[in-house]
Amino acid sequence: MLSKEDNELLTRTGRGTSMGELLRRYWLPAMLSEELPAPDCTPVSLKLLGERLVAFRDTEGRTGILGAYCPHRGANLFWGRNEESGLRCVYHGWKFDVSGQCVDMPSEPASSNFREKVHTTAYPTQERGGLIWAYMGPAHLQPDMPELEWTLLPQSHVYVHKRIQHCNYLQNVEGEIDSAHVSYLHKEFNKENEGLRSIRGQGLLQQQTDSTPHFSVRETDYGLLIGARRELDAESYYWRVTQFLMPTYTMIPTEPGFSVSFTGAVPIDDENMWGYTITWHPDRPLTQEEIDGIESWKGVYTERLRHRPGAPANVLVHGNQRDPRAGPSGAGGPAGSDHQPHPRAPRHHGPGSHRHAAAPDQNGPRPPERRGAHGDDSWRGLSRAVGGVRRTAR
Ligand code: FES
Ligand SMILES: [Fe+2]
């Protein structure tokens, strides 16, 4: 059990907390690109790490994430007019570009240069892999974007999904690295659902009967490699190897050759989070069968809400979008559709490398201990570099 102090240390993410400052050193998924579907579309209210923000896409298609409250008198910029390369506060008309610079101040005389001195909170953004990413940390410490495989692939290879969870981000991360629960929660009890698994490559999981995995953990440059070894049959072990990637990401173990899945837990505040699940195949487009499996919503993917007449097109994000008819800049708004399109990664950076290329060593003798030990030979038979699912000799 964690002490109360350690629990506080790990779960608090506001500015000035230890974990909050750590998370602010990373580029974080802020929202789906499709939530800002077009230049000058309706702004989106969002909250990340306890900070109230507003996101918009300007006339040139650039994305901006600003502090929600206007530095003049504190009106919420969510109600602003998104027009002519900036977001204009609805109260006195101060206008801010995506960098947070005030570019127009209609309440001042034309001769005034006061606007040049006004800058509001703005976080750098980048779009990659069908997501808008934000960096909320010190400018001089801004890192490069993470080159996660799915962010470097053609859009046809990737499925991107986001859901809200009413829990602390750490509760989600804990579940993602807890390989023991898959023996029960992710076991398919209903044979009719066999063909509609939302995460493919789990055939060995369905065969195994050993629900008491032996865990081994390795530190890596990117985080942790977490091996869970089960007995499969008289000759073989069944390994599930989960990659934990800093700061809050994991990769779900899958058998070689199948699509791969990533999860990310991004704190909204300390009681709520966005859960991102991404599935991709590094070598080819996802098949319709794979997409149908995801959209059966029978596994780790939550159902996307469908469009209701009169509602904003993007209702999957559970009420963080303004009704486009309600505000001064919302006339027209994004056109609704009856179906949430499959989000596509916007850029091509060339083919990614297959993460499952390393073949396991099949020759290791059975370790002397069967349970509970975390010594070196607990990894025997398995390459330390691989993730995913492997079958190794006992
Ligand atoms: S409160 Fe925003 S311009 Fe005055
Ligand atoms: Fe799970």
How would you describe the overall organization of this protein?
With 394 residues, this protein is mainly beta. The protein has five helices and 19 strands. The strands form four sheets. Strands 12, 13, 14, 15, 16, 17, 18 and 19 form an eight-stranded antiparallel beta sheet that branches. A hairpin with a 7-residue loop joins strand 16 (249-252) and strand 17. 40% of the residues are buried. Fe (ii) ion binds at residues 175, 181, 185-186, 300.
Features:
about 400 residues; mainly beta; Rieske Iron-sulfur Protein; 2 domains; 8-stranded antiparallel sheet; 5 helices; 19 strands; about 10% helix; about 25% strand; binds FE2/S2 (inorganic) cluster; binds fe (ii) ion
Q: Briefly, what is this?
A:
The protein has 394 residues and is mainly β. 9% of the residues lie in helices and 26% in strands. The chain folds into two domains: 27-138, Rieske [2Fe-2S] iron-sulphur domain (Rieske Iron-sulfur Protein), CATH 2.102.10; 149-327 and 384-394, Alpha-D-Glucose-1,6-Bisphosphate, Chain A, domain 4 (2-Layer Sandwich), CATH 3.30.530.
